[in-house]
Design goal:
The chain is an alpha/beta fold and about 325 residues long. It has 14 helices and ten strands. Helix 3 packs across helix 7.
């Protein structure tokens, strides 16, 4: 495999600094999903932890280094999940954490950031606007800027999911990974290409937030002027060039799915797996719904990456979703 920025030895070492509460998350075959999807489906459940997402795998690595080496303060831009994770990891190590988020982010995510004792600054605009403000704060205050997907710790922390996948049996044919900034996709993809190269790595993004997928397909950074998706956790407009370079080496495919398929996927995960998930976590199921023939007869793993969802919005979406809709 051509070299990415990631290192398998560092990924293995990351497991020793990540709080065990975030490791070895449930992985199980969910037979109840299979009649509606037409293939064998296993779920990697990254919501069963204190911040309800995979993001703390990366922030644990960052916070452990800051606690040892300083500075003991950090700022990040977040759609919600990274902010919670950094606040949790920082609080446990006595770090001062500032999170910049859009005031339009789900209230449940913002409330949990506050509850974890982080300073929360809200901006008008989207995630990329928040990123610009976080950069300015880091420069002014001389503190660590945590940039999801660009900072290698976020990718290598997420890559520990890949280690857990390859260490399980039985084997599987493909892994479906939500694609936003790219930390999880490049991290898990790196491990699979290094240790299980026969597994297909498929990234999934909403049609309403397609920048990274278009960039992967055109092999160059493609930006968009706006996003339009309920999957706020993956709604970026400006891919990071270094992350795209890694993604080009480890992803076998990148696909776009409709909003109706995302909602149908959330409904299926509730009805057949008992899981309340945020839209980003249903992207894998949405991809299967839109292309059942591609996955027929295969064993597919979908990474359920987050469960921080505004329940009022959730009930509106689920109440309107036909189970097999696309």
């Amino acid at each position: 495999m051509l070299e990415t920025r990631l290192d398998t030895a560092r990924i293995r070492a990351a497991r020793h600094v990540i709080d065990p509460v975030f490791l070895d998350t449930p992985l199980y075959r969910c037979e109840a999903l299979e009649p509606g999807l037409g293939c064998a489906v296993s779920v990697k459940l990254e919501t069963a932890n204190p911040v309800r997402s995979f993001k703390a795998r990366g922030t644990e690595v960052i916070a452990s280094r800051l606690a040892d080496e300083g500075p003991r303060a950090a700022v990040c831009a977040s759609a919600g999940n990274l902010g919670q994770a950094l606040a949790w990891s920082g609080r446990g190590r006595g770090l001062d954490v500032t999170v910049v988020a859009s005031r339009f982010a789900p209230a449940v995510k913002l409330d949990r950031i506050r509850a974890l004792d982080a300073r929360l600054e809200l901006v008008d605009g989207d995630f990329d606007t928040a990123r610009e403000r976080a950069v300015a704060i880091a420069r002014h205050d001389g503190i660590r800027l945590v940039e999801d997907s660009l900072d290698i710790e976020t990718c290598e922390g997420a890559a520990t999911i890949g280690l857990e996948l390859v260490n399980t049996a039985p084997s599987f044919d493909a892994v479906l990974i939500a694609l936003g900034g790219g930390a999880m996709a490049t991290g898990v993809g790196h491990v699979l290409k290094a240790l299980a190269p026969g597994v297909e790595v498929i990234c999934v993004q909403p049609l309403g937030a397609p920048a990274m997928t278009h960039s992967w397909r055109q092999r160059r950074v493609v930006t968009t002027d706006s996003t339009d998706t309920i999957a706020d956790g993956v709604a970026g407009r400006r891919p990071i060039p270094e992350v795209l370079d890694d993604l080009l080496l480890v992803a076998d495919d990148a696909v776009l799915v409709r909003e109706s398929s995302i909602i149908a996927g959330m409904r299926m995960l509730l009805d057949h797996a008992g899981l309340v998930v945020e839209p980003s976590a249903a992207l894998g199921v949405a991809a299967i719904l839109e292309d059942r023939d591609r996955f027929a007869g295969r064993h597919v793993v979908t990474v359920v990456c987050g469960g921080n969802v505004d329940m009022n919005a959730y009930h509106r979406w689920i109440g309107a979703a036909p189970i097999r809709g696309s």
